[in-house]
Amino acid sequence: MSVLKVRVWRGGADGAFQAFEVPRHSSQTVLDVVIHIQRRLDPTLAYRYACRVGMCGSCAMTVNGRPRWTCRTHVDKVAASGALDISPLRNLPIIRDLVSDMREFFDKWAAAKGQYYGARTRADDFSRVSPLSEKRKAADAGIECIGCGVCYAACDVVAWNRDYLGPAALNRAWTLVNDERDTQRPERLRAVAGDAGCHACHTHMSCTKRCPKQLSPTASIAGLKRAVAKAAMDGEL
Ligand code: SF4
Ligand code: SF4
Ligand code: FES
To answer: Is any ligand 1 atom within 6 A of the Cβ of residue 154?
Structure first.
């Protein structure tokens, strides 16, 4: 049986890689490798996952230098040579081993006004938004984000500027700016217009290349830049 040479991050920010050997199987995912290590070789290994089918996003880690969902990444695709390095998501504090602290990621989501604010009550009829509406199409393009943090870990601007709201929060803001039912458009545009907002994006597109849902935060951020500029010219900000 062939063997994978795996190095796994242990400890906090000042930790180090620890080497393991894991039997290689067909259709084996990177998450299978991590689970094998924790169940068979070292039960103290800390990591996070839930659905195992690409729905929750909690298994995101850095695999051979790139952020990925480990449950949807086959070893054969990323470790042709039989060597795997697995570490926590970049650009976030490390809690322990493979677990990043997602708090600042979701704090930025809130800072970009990522919550929906409607005006209707239970007594009102449903809102009707035409599927043909341009705003509806723009909102639909980004709505499938599951908040996994892969794009955030891929973004070099987040690495240089820790205040930058980042691709996921800005993508979320753009879906809400286009939600015809939402009541907080000017407040949201104001929230993303500052130095740490959409104008800090350098359009590197790493977020778009790495998003496992094939979303384009880069396009959403470009939309926000246009909307902020127009709102400023119209005196709305
Ligand atoms: S935009 Fe994509 S990569 Fe970023 S958090 Fe959402 S699903 Fe994950
Ligand atoms: S396009 Fe913008 S948000 Fe996306 S990785 Fe590049 S700098 Fe970051
Ligand atoms: S465990 Fe849910 S996306 Fe991987």
So the answer is: no
